[in-house]
Automatic annotation (TrEMBL):
Belongs to the SHMT family. Transmembrane segments: none annotated. Keywords: Amino-acid biosynthesis, Cytoplasm, Methyltransferase, One-carbon metabolism, Pyridoxal phosphate, Transferase. It catalyses: (6R)-5,10-methylene-5,6,7,8-tetrahydrofolate + glycine + H2O = (6S)-5,6,7,8-tetrahydrofolate + L-serine. GO terms for molecular function: glycine hydroxymethyltransferase activity; methyltransferase activity; pyridoxal phosphate binding. Residues 7-387 form the Serine hydroxymethyltransferase-like domain. Catalyzes the reversible interconversion of serine and glycine with tetrahydrofolate (THF) serving as the one-carbon carrier. This reaction serves as the major source of one-carbon groups required for the biosynthesis of purines, thymidylate, methionine, and other important biomolecules. Also exhibits THF-independent aldolase activity toward beta-hydroxyamino acids, producing glycine and aldehydes, via a retro-aldol mechanism. InterPro entries: PyrdxlP-dep_Trfase, PyrdxlP-dep_Trfase_major, PyrdxlP-dep_Trfase_small, Ser_HO-MeTrfase, Ser_HO-MeTrfase-like, Ser_HO-MeTrfase_PLP_BS, SHMT-like_dom. This is Serine hydroxymethyltransferase. It is an enzyme of class 2 (transferase). Its EC number is 2.1.2.1.
Length: 422
C-alpha cells in the first residue's frame, strides 16, 4: 500500500498524509476511541465502490447497477448479526448504513420517539456522549433529555438515580453506554428500570463493541432493544456505525436511517465494515480484546502506585480516566505535555468536574491502538511510567527530551503499519 498516484499529482496532500502516517508511527496513540484498521479494511475503503450510488436497501434500490453492492451489504448485515449473536442466537436485525455514531443515535431516537418526547441519557461530564442528550446536541434540542450520572462516592453509574428519574419523567427511551466510563455497564439493571416504566432500552456500545463481541464485557443483548455502535473503536473497523435491534424495531430503524436521515450509503465503507466484522469473528480477536483490558489494567496499576488519582479507582475496560488536578495541573496542560513527547491522549472532564470542558480536570488514556501494535502489559507499564514522568516533571526539559526519545524507540519496536510503505 502506498501513495504512488497521490504523491505524483497532489504533492501537498500527499505530504501531509505522509507526515500524519509518520506521526502515528513514531508516537503512541492512546486516545481511547482510536485504533489501527487492518490493511484489508483500508483496501476495501480505497476501492471504486466509493463511486456507486445505492440509495435504498438490498433488493430495493433507487438506482440500477447494484447487484454486487447488494451482495456486499447483505454480507455485512449477516456478519453483523452473527458477530452480535448472544446465547447462540444471531441478532434479529442489523442496519449497516449509518455514517457515524451520532447519526446512528439520532436515527434510533427518531425511530423510537417523536420530537418533544422525553428520554434519559448519561450526562457528558459523567462520561456520556453529546448525543445522549446534551443541550448543545440536536438530540437535546429535538427531544426532552433528562440526564443521569454517577455517584459521588465511587464515581460509578447511579442506578438508583436512573430509576428515580425514569419513574419521575416516564421517558420513552433510556440510552446507556459511555465514552469515558472505565467500568462494566450493567445492562440488566438498565433493562429492569426500562421495563418498569415501559421505556425502550438503547445501548450505545461505540466504545466497548469490540470487548462485547469478544466476550470481555457482558453483552447488551438480550437486555437492550436496540444497539448502536461505531465500527472503528475497539471493533477496529472503518470509520462508521451501525444499528442492531430486535425484530419489532427493524422497519422503524431502517426507515429512520434512510430516507429519514441519509441518502446514499457509503458502499466502500460498508464493504470495509463487512471485512472488519469477519476479522472480529476470528479467535485472534478475542485474544486482542482480552489484551486491551489487561493493558489498561497494567496502566492503571502503575498510575495508582505512582499516586495518581484514577476515576473509580481503576478500570474494567479499555480506558483509564485520570484526575490530574492533585498534581497541580489541568487536563489540557497534561494533554499538551504528553503530545510534546509523542504520547497522544485527550483532556477529559471527570465526574462533578468544576473546570470547563476545554480545560477540564482529567485525561482519558486508552489501549486499543497500542494493543493493535502488539504491545502487552510490559510495554504498557513502560508507557505508564513515561506518562507519570512527564506529568510529574512538566517543566524539566531534560526529562521531556529523554521520555521523547524513549517513546520513539518503543514505538519503533512495535510498528503500527508495517505493510504501509511511504
Ligand atoms: N469522539 C468519540 C470519543 O472520543 O469518545 C466519541 O464521540
Amino acid at each position: 500500500m502506498n501513495l504512488q498516484f497521490l504523491r505524483h499529482s497532489d504533492a501537498e496532500i500527499a505530504k501531509f498524509v505522509e507526515q500524519e502516517v509518520v506521526r502515528q508511527e513514531d508516537g503512541l496513540e492512546m486516545i481511547a476511541s482510536e485504533n489501527i484498521a487492518s490493511p484489508e479494511v483500508l483496501e476495501a475503503l480505497g476501492t471504486p465502490l466509493t463511486d456507486k450510488y445505492s440509495e435504498g436497501y438490498p433488493g430495493r434500490r433507487y438506482y440500477s447497477g447494484n447487484i454486487f453492492i447488494d451482495r456486499i451489504e447483505l454480507l455485512a448485515i449477516e456478519r453483523a448479526k452473527k458477530l452480535f449473536a448472544y446465547d447462540g442466537h444471531n441478532a434479529a436485525h442489523a442496519n449497516v448504513q449509518s455514517h457515524s455514531g451520532s447519526d446512528a443515535n439520532l436515527a434510533a431516537y427518531l425511530a423510537l420517539m417523536n420530537p418533544g418526547d422525553t428520554f434519559l441519557g448519561m450526562r457528558l461530564t459523567a462520561g456520556g456522549h453529546l448525543t445522549h442528550g446534551h443541550k448543545v446536541s440536536a438530540t437535546g434540542r429535538i427531544f426532552r433529555a433528562v440526564q443521569y450520572g454517577v455517584r459521588r462516592s465511587d464515581e460509578r453509574i447511579d442506578y438508583d438515580e436512573v430509576r428515580y428519574l425514569a419513574h419521575t419523567h416516564k421517558p420513552k427511551v433510556i440510552i446507556c453506554g459511555a465514552t469515558a466510563y472505565p467500568r462494566i455497564i450493567d445492562f440488566a439493571s438498565f433493562a429492569a428500570i426500562a421495563r418498569e416504566v415501559q421505556a425502550v432500552l438503547v445501548a450505545d456500545l461505540s466504545h466497548i463493541a469490540g470487548l462485547v463481541v469478544a466476550g470481555v464485557h457482558p453483552h447488551a443483548f438480550p437486555y437492550a432493544d436496540v444497539i448502536t455502535t461505531t465500527t472503528h473503536k475497539t471493533l477496529r473497523g472503518p470509520r462508521g456505525a451501525m444499528i442492531l435491534c430486535k425484530a419489532q424495531y427493524a422497519q422503524a430503524i431502517d426507515k429512520s436511517v434512510m430516507p429519514g436521515l441519509q441518502g446514499g450509503p457509503l458502499d466502500h465503507v460498508i464493504a470495509a465494515k463487512a471485512v472488519a466484522f469477519g476479522q472480529a469473528m476470528q479467535p485472534a480477536f478475542r485474544d486482542y480484546a482480552r489484551q486491551i483490558v489487561q493493558n489498561a489494567q497494567a496502566l492503571a496499576r502503575v498510575f495508582a502506585s505512582a499516586g495518581l488519582r484514577l476515576v473509580t479507582g481503576g478500570t474494567d475496560n479499555h480506558l483509564v480516566l485520570v484526575d490530574v488536578t492533585p498534581l497541580g495541573i489541568s487536563g489540557k496542560i497534561a494533554e499538551q505535555a504528553l503530545e510534546q513527547v509523542g504520547i497522544f491522549v485527550n483532556k477529559n472532564t471527570v465526574p462533578f468536574d468544576t473546570r470547563k470542558p476545554m480545560d477540564p480536570s482529567g485525561i482519558r488514556v486508552g489501549t486499543p491502538a497500542l494493543t493493535s501494535r502488539g504491545m502487552k502489559e510490559d510495554a504498557l507499564e513502560r508507557v505508564a511510567e513515561f506518562i507519570v514522568r512527564v506529568l510529574k516533571h512538566l517543566h524539566d526539559a531534560a526529562v521531556l527530551e529523554s521520555v521523547s526519545s524513549e517513546v520513539r524507540a518503543l514505538a519503533k519496536r512495535y510498528p503500527a503499519r508495517p505493510w504501509f510503505h511511504l
